[in-house]
Amino acid sequence: MLNPPDPALVARIAETLRRARRLLFITGAGISAESGLPTYRGIGGLYNNQTTEDQFPIETALSGAMLEANPAITWKYLHQIEKSCRGARFNDAHAIIAEWQERFEVCVLTQNIDGFHRDAGSRNLIEIHGDIHDLLCTRCDYTVTVPDYSELEMPPSCPRCQSPVRPRVVLFGEVLPSGAIQHLYRELDQGFDLVFSIGTTSVFPYIAGPVVQASQIGIPTVEINPTDTNVTHFVGYKLPSGAAASLRAIREVLINV
Predict the structure, then answer these.
(1) Distance (Å, rounded) from C-alpha 101 to C-alpha 98?
(2) Which secondary-structure segment (H or E) carries 197?
(3) How far is CA 53 from its chain centroid?
(4) Taking the domain 58-86+136-169, which CATH number applies?
(5) Model confidence over 214-238: pLDDT tens digits?
(6) Nearest in space to 27 (alpha carbons), one of 99, 128, 119
(7) Burial (CB count <10 Å: 0-12, 13-18, 19+), residue 230
C-alpha cells in the first residue's frame, strides 16, 4: 500500500510550480505501473530473478544482437510483454502532465515504450527508448503503427520486401536514437524552471543527468517515487508516493489556492 502524499510537502511543491514557466518531466516504469503494466523485473515483473523459458536472461533475449541472430526469440518476448500490456491505458498521472501543457511549457522525457504519454496528449515528447507500437522494416523505408501485435505473424516480415521488421525501440546493447538525443539537448539548452523525476530509478546517465544538473545550479527538483533512487539525495522535494495520487494532490492545490 502506497503512502498518501504529504499535504505540507504537496503545498510547497505547488507553490514552486506556480512560479514556474518551463517544466521537465522525466518518467519511468513506475508511472505506467499504475495502469497495470508490469516491468521487466521488480515488483510485479514478468521475469523476476529468472531466465526466460529459453534459458536466456531477458536482457539477452531483448538485445539487438539476438534480434539479428534469431529474431524469433526477440519477437517471442516482445510479444509476451506487449500482450501483458494489452488493454491498459494511460492514467491520471499521464493525463495531468498533458493537461499542464495549457498552463506551462512542458517537455516529457520518458523511458517507457508504451505510448501512454502520446495517447494522453503530450506534444513535446521525447520517447528516448521508442514506442513498441511503431514498426519499421530493417531494409526498406516501410513503417507502420499497430494498436497491438494480435494480428502479426511472428516474427513479422515487411509486406514490401519480406525483410525482417522490428519495433522502434532501443533493445539492449543498442545506441540511443540520435534524433531523440538532439531533441533533449535542445530542450536542456533552453533551461527549465522545475524538473520532475517520476517513477524511475534513474540508473541511466541521460535520465539522472538532467535532475543532478538542475540541482547543482539551483533549479527546483521533485522526485515522485515510493522508494529511494539514484537521484533521491539530489532532489529538493521527495514524495514517496504513487505518481497519480501525487500529481492529483498537486493539481488540486494549484487549482484551489
Answers:
(1) 6
(2) strand 194-198
(3) 27
(4) 3.30.1600.10
(5) 999 999 999 999 999 999 999 999 9
(6) 128
(7) middle
- Local structure of residue 185 (DSSP, 8 states): H
pLDDT band for 42, please (50, 70, 90 cuts).
very low
CA nearest 135: which of 159, 117, 102? Answer: 159
d(CA 164, CA 68): 9
By annotation, the residues acting in catalysis are 129
User: Which position has the grid cell 499542464?
Assistant: 100
3-state helix, strand, coil in the chain (%, to 5): 40, 20, 45
Question: Which H or E run includes 127?
Answer: strand 125-127
Rounded to 10°, the helix 7-18/243-256 angle is 60
Give the 3-state secondary structure of residue 136. Answer: strand
Nearest CA to 22 among 104, 108, 102, 125? Answer: 104
What pTM was estimated for this model as a whole?
0.93
From 1.25.40.10, 3.40.50.1220, 3.40.190.150, 3.50.50.60, which CATH number describes the 7-36+89-129+174-256 domain? 3.40.50.1220
Which pLDDT tens digit goes with each residue over 173-182? 999 999 999 9
Q: Please determine, for residue 239, whether its predicted confidence score (pLDDT) is greater than 50.
A: yes
List the domain boundaries for the chain.
7-36+89-129+174-256, 58-86+136-169
Q: How far apart are CA 20 and CA 92, in angstroms?
A: 21
